[in-house]
């Protein structure tokens, strides 16, 4: 993977939560605020022209968590959903990904490396 961007988001990594039934019917996403915050922080660090791209991507993400037992799949899903429509048109374009969960309560953060698939 040729790395196009390395993005670091400070703070405890968040997990995608299940959609919930709304008070008046329908569904809502309880993670919408976390996704929006993540996307804004990413765009502040890397905002290339021509995105969202229709190219295939590779992603390497490291979650530095503060001693809590977290589900790496749900943390990864929050990221791919948050950046859909911003970096990639659809998260199906991510053809290769690596996820690492590291116990680090002194400096919790998410480090995201993004590249185009070759």
Kindly describe this structure.
- This protein is an alpha+beta fold and 118 residues long.
- The protein contains two helices and six strands, in the order E-E-E-H-E-H-E-E.
- It has a single domain (2-14, 28-116), classed as 60s Ribosomal Protein L30, Chain: A (2-Layer Sandwich).
- A four-stranded mixed β-sheet has the order 1-6-4-5, with helices on one face.
- Strand 2 and strand 3 form a beta hairpin.
List the helices and strands and how they pair.
Blueprint lengths: L1 E9 L9 E2 L5 E2 L3 H14 L11 E9 L6 H11 L11 E10 L5 E8 L2
Parallel strand pairs: 4-5
Antiparallel strand pairs: 1-6, 2-3, 4-6
Helix pairs in contact: 1-2
Helicity range: 10-25%
According to DSSP, the number of beta strands is 6
CATH class: Alpha Beta
Helix count, per DSSP? 2
The residue-averaged pLDDT reads 91
Q: What is the helix/strand order?
A: EEEHEHEE
Strand portion, in percent? 25-35%
CATH superfamily: Holliday junction resolvase RusA
Structural class: alpha+beta
The gyration radius over C-alpha positions equals: 15 Å
**Largest sheet properties:** 4 strands, mixed
Strand arrangement, major sheet: 1-6-4-5
What is the count of structural domains? 1
The CATH topology annotation reads as: 60s Ribosomal Protein L30, Chain: A
Name the features.
6 strands; 60s Ribosomal Protein L30, Chain: A; two-stranded antiparallel ribbon; 34% strand; alpha+beta; 2 helices; 118 residues; four-stranded mixed beta sheet; 21% helix; single chain
Give the structure's gist in a few sentences.
This protein has 118 residues and is of the alpha+beta class. Helix content is 21%, strand content 34%. The longest helix is centred in the first third of the chain and has 14 residues, at 32-45.
């Amino acid at each position: 993977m040729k790395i196009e961007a390395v993005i670091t988001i400070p703070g405890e990594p968040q997990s995608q939560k299940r959609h919930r039934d709304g008070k008046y019917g329908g569904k809502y996403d309880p993670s919408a605020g976390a996704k929006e915050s993540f996307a804004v922080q990413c765009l502040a660090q890397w905002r290339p022209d021509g995105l969202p791209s229709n190219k295939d991507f590779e992603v390497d993400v490291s979650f530095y968590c503060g001693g809590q037992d977290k589900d790496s799949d749900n943390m990864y899903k929050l990221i791919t959903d948050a950046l859909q429509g911003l970096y990639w048109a659809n998260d199906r374009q991510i053809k290769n990904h690596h996820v690492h969960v590291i116990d680090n309560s002194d400096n919790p953060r998410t480090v995201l490396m993004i590249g185009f698939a070759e």
